[in-house]
């Protein structure tokens, strides 16, 4: 039997260890880096990038003017968010919340699992053998649901919310949407403005609204 005093000491050590593991790393100017295998709370900055080493584990990753770059087997308990920057993961990433960027690309490769939404306004979204638990949404960004990827929710290309006069902003480019070999978009696809849509013959989707799919059977889409 462990003596009562020893139990108290062990409890204090465990509490200190947990508190240390949840320490936040926060800056205003400059990049934030979480070392490989390190476990921290929020990793955030305003003007700078957030870099997560292989097998790093954070509560969330946030920046305003900068990118989020993650290695392999990274875990984010909540969200990965930036305004002006991209979000790029290595393989086997787990994000238990959402990934959001306004002006930047989002890329989730092999074995990635995003349990929430993936959202951009002007950035592209790319998946390769990755899972998304909810929706994928953009306004003007290209989207590739690549080989073997699975989206449980909808793929949604929205109209802009409009300018100061309340009228919709003019779309200056036509997004390209590619649903690759053996990919699945379970919730269907909704397009509120013009897109170029390519769907592989082995892919599966729910209902398609607002666009006509161009079928292809080659390894890559014949984008024009």
Structural notes for this entry:
With 224 residues, the chain is mainly β. The protein has one domain. Helix content is 8%, strand content 33%. The protein has one helix and 28 strands. The protein has one helix at residues 4-21, and strands at residues 25-26, 32-34, 42-44, 50-52, 57-58, 60-62, 68-70, 75-76, 80-82, 87-88, 94-95, 99-101, 106-108, 113-114, 118-119, 125-127, 131-132, 136-138, 143-145, 150-151, 155-157, 176-179, 184-185, 189-191, 196-200, 204-205, 208-209, 214-216. The strands form three sheets. It has a ten-stranded parallel beta sheet, with no helix packed on it.
Secondary structure: elements and pairs:
Layout: H1 4-21, E1 25-26, E2 32-34, E3 42-44, E4 50-52, E5 57-58, E6 60-62, E7 68-70, E8 75-76, E9 80-82, E10 87-88, E11 94-95, E12 99-101, E13 106-108, E14 113-114, E15 118-119, E16 125-127, E17 131-132, E18 136-138, E19 143-145, E20 150-151, E21 155-157, E22 176-179, E23 184-185, E24 189-191, E25 196-200, E26 204-205, E27 208-209, E28 214-216
Parallel strand pairs: 1-3, 2-4, 3-6, 4-7, 5-8, 6-9, 7-10, 8-11, 9-12, 10-13, 11-14, 12-15, 13-16, 14-17, 15-18, 16-19, 17-20, 18-21, 19-22, 20-23, 21-24, 22-25, 23-26, 24-27, 25-28
């Amino acid at each position: 039997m462990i003596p009562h005093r020893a139990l108290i000491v062990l409890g204090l050590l465990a509490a200190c260890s947990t508190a240390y593991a949840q320490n936040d790393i926060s800056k205003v100017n400059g990049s934030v880096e979480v070392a490989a295998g390190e476990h921290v709370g929020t990793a955030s900055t305003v003007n700078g990038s957030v870099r997560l080493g292989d097998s790093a584990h954070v509560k969330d990753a946030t920046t305003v003017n900068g990118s989020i770059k993650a290695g392999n087997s990274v875990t984010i308990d909540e969200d990965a968010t930036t305004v002006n920057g991209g979000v790029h993961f290595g393989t086997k990433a787990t994000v238990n919340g959402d990934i959001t960027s306004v002006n930047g690309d989002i890329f989730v490769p092999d074995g990635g699992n995003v349990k929430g939404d993936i959202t951009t306004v002007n950035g592209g979204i790319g998946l390769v053998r990755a899972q998304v638990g909810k929706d994928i949404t953009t306004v003007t960004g290209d989207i590739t649901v690549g080989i073997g990827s699975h989206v449980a929710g909808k793929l949604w290309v929205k109209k802009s919310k409009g300018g100061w006069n309340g009228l919709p902003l003019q779309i200056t480019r036509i997004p390209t949407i590619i649903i690759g070999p053996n990919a699945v978009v379970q919730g269907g696809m909704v397009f509120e403005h013009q897109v170029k849509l390519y769907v592989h013959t082995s892919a599966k989707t729910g209902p398609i609204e607002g666009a006509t799919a161009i079928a292809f059977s080659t390894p890559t889409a014949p984008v024009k």
